[in-house]
Design a protein that fits this description.
single chain, mainly beta
């Protein structure tokens, strides 16, 4: 029994990844993807943004989970489709207007992984779905203090993911 358990654990593949498009917006991010079987993986990722330049001031956090089905017999290679759930919080000042809110989304993703070597690959992905957003929109601090509930609440069909990921497969 111990031998069977150790063989299963050794076969597990874990990938560490980062999205270059997020880095282009000064948003550090990191993701992990776990192989569940030959065609399914489960990924989690997170990102944080704190940027202040001139009249732009942003603070945002995001977390996402994605289940992927890989069409290739080789795990974590070539085409995949996925189900993605994502949630985030943002507080953005653009010129004189503050946008403070939460967003949650659920949708479908499609992507392709270009295998470079046994441990390295580059992955592209794009996702669309429904996004629910609550926001307190204010022009100044006095107005924001009087807002006890969100003044914007929407559900839209929108892009929910875009990525060019550098991927390192640990095992």
């Amino acid at each position: 029994m111990l031998f069977g358990t150790s063989q299963t654990a050794m076969a597990q593949r874990v990938a560490l990844k980062t999205n270059v498009l997020y880095w282009a917006t000064a948003t550090p991010n990191l993701g992990l993807e776990f192989r569940l079987n030959r065609h399914l993986t489960l990924g989690v990722e997170g990102a944080v943004n704190k940027l202040k330049i001139n009249s732009i001031d942003t603070r945002a956090e995001m977390a996402a989970a994605e289940m992927r089905y890989w069409f290739s017999a080789r795990p974590q290679a070539r085409h995949f489709v996925g189900l993605l759930g994502t949630a985030g919080n943002y507080n953005v000042l653009l010129k004189d207007t503050r946008h403070n809110g939460d967003a949650m989304g659920f949708g479908l993703t499609y992507g392709y992984s270009f295998v470079l070597s046994r441990h390295w690959s580059i992955e592209t992905t794009l996702g669309v779905g429904l996004v629910y957003r609550q926001e307190k929109f204010s022009r100044n601090d006095a107005q924001r203090a009087t807002l006890d509930k969100p003044n914007v609440e929407t559900v839209n069909f929108a892009p929910i993911k875009a990525g060019v990921n550098f991927v390192y497969i640990i095992k």
